[in-house]
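Exercise: predict the fold of this chain.
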Amino acid sequence: MKRLSRARGILFFYLFDLALLLLFVLSFFPFMHRRQPRSRELVLLNPAARDSVCTVDLSRNDGEFLGARSVSLVKRGGIWLGSSSDGNHEFIWPADTQLVEKLLVLASSSVSSYEMSSSRRDWDNFGVREQDAFSLRFSDSSHRTLSSLLFGNEDSMTGRVAVRSAADTAVYAVDAGILPLLSADESFWADPFLYPQCLTGLGRAEADGQLRRGRLENIRPREGLAVDYAAKLYFGNGAEILFSVYRKDAAYIVIPTLLPGPAVSDEDRQALQAVNYRYSISGVTLDNLLEACALSAEP
């Protein structure tokens, strides 16, 4: 058998390695020409429809055992009210107006988007199937859907989140700035103050110095249970709040009754009178509340 010289052997192995390298490079060739997702401006809610929004529904699935959790925000007159699945939508609370407005502004503002897929087969990869995604729906006073969106996986590297319209198959990646507002937690969306802004008429800067509530509590005191504290607070616009306070372990449960002032419209009055929520407060907050009520009652 004819033997290869050492020089020819080395040359053969170099050529063999070169062939392998070429095959490796060519294996990526189709991806070099793959169409890159193009950026386009997108709005999640038509800006022209923003003032027509009267209902905002937010929901997400907490898993097989906990099931879906939802919050509904409804505008009655000039007041945003809320209810949630946590309270079987029986308890009505005043919503945080600034948060609702922030959501509407973000949803109707133009953002850069990238089409990631136009196939249903990719929904699972992006987490935008109905049973997996966070659902956000805007409706008008006639319950007509203005926009229905399903948010999926967030890409921490790009700062974008997958989203699709419930009426479309295409999946887009958009700026994740709206994510902090995608919550189905009722305590997040409810007015945070003991004296709700919708009753007092105070701006946020003025209200920020007021007492704040704890978490909402979807419970009813047992029949015949006497209140531990009862107090009333008056406001300069003629509005009042009646506070019924019950001790519960180391905290207190407050059931407020909102009494609107004389200048409130009939629709706003009905909205305020529909409020029947309750929340927890600490002992320190209770002391401050009772002191405020005592000062309010002084002639």
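Check your answer against the key: Residues 139 and 145 are 4 Å apart (CA to CA).
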